[in-house]
Amino acid sequence: DIQMTQSPSSVSASVGDRVTITCRASQGISSWLAWYQQKPGKAPKLLIYAASSLQSGVPSRFSGSGSGTDFTLTISSLQPEDFATYYCQQANTFPPFTFGPGTKVDIK
Amino acid sequence: EVQLEESGGGLVQPGGSLRLSCAVSGFISTDYWMTWVRQAPGKGLEWVANINQDGSDKYYVDSVRGRFTMSRDNAKNSLYLQMNSLRAEDTALYYCARNRRLSGMDVWGQGTTVTVSS
Known about the structure:
heterodimer, A: about 110 residues, mainly beta, four-stranded antiparallel sheet, B: mainly beta, 11 strands
């Protein structure tokens, strides 16, 4: 099975900051990586698919990059509504559709 | 409106069974793979099971294979997760999601809670 890791596990940031989250796959997954945002008590929300494609309706301050084993999610200017937990998920090889352990973005 | 609505969760004793349902509306469910994802209290997301468009292919995480069965009734626009031999570690919020396979899970329900405890 492909294992997914994320770093950092948590990050404290201020409104307006640029935030970068890294996701690494244990083996190459081409560009088949998705990013999700989850707020407390809410279902996950798809932000990015195919590593860098922005899901419809998602603000352009979110961007994704990477291929192979290393990927990043960048929030260019953190907004109050962006404080949440972010998960990566590989879609290249299944089962399983593995999720990363999550990165919590909270207020500095 | 594209929507998924889970139901069927509850409190069950270890070794017991539950059947979760997911009602699909606002899109043609036969066009998509569908997925169950769970989240234990305070923990991350865990993919549980997947089913293809016509129900002929099903995949499960190792920890539930042989105990859980995913199915779909396209005529009723519904998905199901039959959970048998439940264990304490199956306690979680269970989400159903529309799975675009390589392009991520783009529609999620609000989840239904399963608690396995004596």
